[in-house]
Design goal:
Helix content: 25-40%
Oligomer: single chain
Radius of gyration: 17 Å
Number of strands: 7
Structural class: alpha+beta
Shape: globular
Strand content: 15-25%
Largest sheet: 5 strands, antiparallel
Length: 221
């Protein structure tokens, strides 16, 4: 395995992985030991939140988050996420006009996981024009904490088809097991409360889910 650091507040490494047969691939490795102390997050839990965000995305069948697993790497246990070769210069602010359906999914996803860090640059488009959402370590806390640049979505009607997807989260036993294993009990309870709130709301309830003191992340890109 080879690696190099990426710019980030927490330790983030771009790693080259091999399977022993000459095949290689790139992944983003975020070790638990490299997580900076945060007053509003339990220590050494951000890597697991990255993994759980992927699990939720897969349960929704929206395919927003690149494959993310937990592995014991050269700096200890952490998340490993498939590296996306993104098109340069593309981000939420110039993707939104032509991809509003996908952005609606990302916005609802952020409400469900209580994403505290949806910057514009956390929406990527790859070489095949597929849009991805990345960087979800700051998520799943109990209280209203959404910080996002996606305020165009606030109070927009939620399509019924997407509500049906969200409703599946309530009865997915594998998802519940993963949440219980990776989060504190009150975080799990808050997750399902957010799901219920979303299902009862006719519009995207960003105002109700957002951090009232800092609704925008810093920096926004």
């Amino acid at each position: 395995m080879r690696y190099r650091p990426l710019p980030s507040y927490n330790h983030t490494l771009l790693v080259e992985l091999g399977n022993g047969d000459g095949e290689t691939g790139m992944a983003v490795y975020k070790p638990s030991k490299g997580e900076a102390p945060l007053w509003d997050f339990p220590p050494n839990t951000l890597y697991m939140r990255e993994r759980l965000a992927y699990v939720v995305s897969e349960c929704l069948d929206w395919g927003l988050v690149p494959l993310t697993v937990v592995r014991d790497g050269p700096f200890g246990i952490g998340s490993m996420q498939l590296f996306i070769e993104a098109r340069k210069g593309m981000h939420y602010f110039n993707l939104y006009p032509d991809h509003q359906d996908t952005m609606m999914r990302i916005g609802l996803f952020d409400c469900v996981i209580n994403n505290c860090d949806r910057k514009g640059g956390h929406c990527l488009v790859d070489q095949d024009d597929r849009i991805w959402a990345i960087d979800h370590g700051l998520s799943f806390v109990p209280g209203p904490k959404v910080r996002t640049v996606m305020w165009e979505l606030a109070d927009e009607p939620i399509p019924e088809a997407l509500k049906k997807d969200v409703a599946r989260l309530c009865g997915d036993s594998s998802l519940r097991q993963a949440l219980v294993a990776g989060l504190a009990p009150r975080e799990v309870e808050a997750f399902y409360q957010r799901v219920e709130t979303l299902l009862e709301s006719p519009t995207v309830p960003l105002h109700g889910f957002s951090d009232p003191y800092r609704p925008y992340p810093w920096p926004t890109i």
